[in-house]
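hi support,

uploading two proteins for the ticket. first:
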Amino acid sequence: MAATSPGDAPEPLPKQAGYQIERDIAVGRAVRIAGVDEVGRGSWAGPVVVCAAVPRPGFPDPPAGLTDSKRLTAKRREELAAVLPGWVEAYAIGAARHEEIDELGMTAALQLAATRALEALPMAPDVVLLDGKHDYIGPPWTVRTAIKADVHSASVAAASVIAKVHRDRLMADLGRDYPDFAFGDNAGYPAPAHQKALAALGPTPYHRLSWAYLDNLPEWRHLRKHRLAPDPLDGEEQLTLL
């Protein structure tokens, strides 16, 4: 086996999100930045949710431990979600329903949810900082994408946590009438209890019927919806458990 040097190892991710990306964007000028992140892209049921969070001028220290919501326990997410609305200058949430995802595809659904969030802010941001490498928002917004922004950027991390907690609560509410699916535990992702209930009972009124999971369920395959034009994000992360 070839020897490795310290330079070969990936750079460790920070435990606390900061403002490096925001400061790079705002060099020498006053810029209002909205950090944007989504949750629910790979879920089999429910909406995709996008949050836009605007940090206060001067970039005040973020709450301790703020980072990507997926790196936090449910308890810590709830704790942060309780303080983040008072820490940011403003935030707003937008969603695209499961019917809209089926009709439009994930790319357009993400754009729709993000646009709803951004337009709901009390002030228009100068720059939108978006987690990931794909700009699914586009004009008229000025968008900067950054991989792992939900780890490095305090504004995107705040959006990540707020969106995750909001959607988890929503899915728990939707699942009260469908206890076998355990949406309160899996938020619509394909956990074992969810898959077992789906095979036995079929989709709930909140399931995405354009998702490929239906192809593997002979009894319910006839419910599968197909769009004329394929979407490059269709099926992405469909088996991710969050």
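and the second one:
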Amino acid sequence: MFQLDDNLLRELGLGDLPADEKNKMLAHIYETLELRVGMRLAEKMTDAQLDEFEAFIDRNDEPGALRWLETNFPNYKDTVAEELTKLKDEIKAQAPEIMKATLSQQANQTSPALDNPQPQNPS
């Protein structure tokens, strides 16, 4: 369906993030997408369906949850695609600021001499 990887980050304008920041961003994208899709699908579920689905989540049974979705909401992938498109558009719009903030933060971390100036030795 889709891959959360370097190609996605490049598409979003975040391909030059440091490796640890890439991993954080991919995790953020996954969590945000999961939350948004879950909220949209939950709006369409009956209370009984919500209880059934939550039981899979509580057991960390992702394959079971996916089978349940395919059975009860065969078009759930359309919701995933719609939410992913929205999220990608939001991130693309923020990519320059994300890159600037990350590079600024990285620059501050790599110049410890500025953070802890050494006392000057008077001659």
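thanks. also noticed: The radius of gyration is 21 Å.
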